[in-house]
Amino acid sequence: MTEKWVEEAWSKVSEKVGRTSAKIGANFPHASIDGKYKLEAPHWWTAGFWPGLLWLLHRDSQDESLKGIAEECEAKLDKVITDYYKLDHDMGFMWTLTSLTNYKFTGNEDSKRRALLVATILLGRFNVNGNYIRAWNPWFEGNENSGWAIIDCMMNLPLLYWASEETGDPRFKNAAMKHADMVLEYFIREDGAVHHIVRFDSATGEHAENIGGQGYAPYSAWSRGTAWAIYGMALSYHYTGEERYLQASKRVAHFLLSHLPEDMVPHWDMRIPDDVPKYRDSSAGAIAASGLLLLGEKAGPVEGPLYRDGAVAMLKSLYENYGDWENEAEDGLILHGTGHYPENSNVDVPLIYGDYYFVEGLARLKGYDGLF
């Protein structure tokens, strides 16, 4: 039986998105600034989260207007597929929550072809020297970052796993597993803390350095990266059954759960000096909660409740302490996210990926177990 607070939260989410969907439409919100979601270009990495959120709600309500907006967003992404200069590792985030979800729900063959084409392009970013999927493209002329891999990319691997299942071609899965094994070796530390960026020599594949990225320092503990690792490793276990991925997800989960403040929502980095502002990152909490729910399912009846209970406590705190429901002057659902503290970008604001994973977590607590 679904707990009362979950149904209450779902109702409030549905009511609010019913209002904001008419305002945002088939666009790509990222961070809410002064109460209004800033819209990004279709190629931005967060483009899948708004349509993905609409699909979550449509699955429950069968509201055709939400489905229509999600499909319009998917169509707008078509021009990005042919833009080599803007496509990067985050193709998984973008097309898993749009085309792949549409195909799973409706059997739309155009959506299936989009997802397979993008999976093929993502496979093309795999560097066999180093066994990693390259992260970003050059940020500016002369920028050389071809050796960079990031922890976030664990969440893009399911598109590759699915492509192997759909086509019977093992190349997609092989590359995904090699990337996941690289993460086990170079990203996840013995205590369960996680690097954001690891740089390799892209010609030889040799490890060059660890980079702090959106965390405080190379050896701190950026909370959103921790969440990506929990969820990403649990997903790799889901698709492969390889025990090493399950154990890695558990190790990172224990690190996160042991470093949470009293309200169960992590600071933006869990290993920072006392004189550094300890802003919360509600998005990290929402991502981690969804990952912990999956981990709880996979860990078995003895250990599973530990992870599920942690996830429920995190989601309940996000609802009760961070949610914004009746305020028509705020587009976001969950307050107090931190996008990129070192660059002072989108600090202490709602973030669309925080909203998405919060709603995904609620959906799982309501009994929806199909993975997007």
Description:
- By secondary structure, this protein is mainly alpha-helical.
- The chain has one domain: Glycosyltransferase (Alpha/alpha barrel).
- Helices cover 53% and strands 9% of the residues.
- The protein contains 13 helices and 9 strands.
- It has helices at residues 4-24, 49-61, 64-76, 78-81, 91-106, 109-123, 157-167, 171-186, 223-240, 243-257, 282-298, 300-322, 352-365, and strands at 29-33, 36-39, 126-127, 132-133, 148-150, 197-200, 207-211, 337-340, 345-349.
Which secondary structure elements does this structure contain, and how are they paired or packed?
Layout: H1 4-24, E1 29-33, E2 36-39, H2 49-61, H3 64-76, H4 78-81, H5 91-106, H6 109-123, E3 126-127, E4 132-133, E5 148-150, H7 157-167, H8 171-186, E6 197-200, E7 207-211, H9 223-240, H10 243-257, H11 282-298, H12 300-322, E8 337-340, E9 345-349, H13 352-365
Antiparallel strand pairs: 1-2, 3-4, 5-6, 6-7, 8-9
Helix pairs in contact: 1-13, 2-3, 2-5, 2-13, 3-5, 5-6, 5-7, 7-8, 7-9, 9-10, 9-11, 10-11, 11-12, 11-13, 12-13
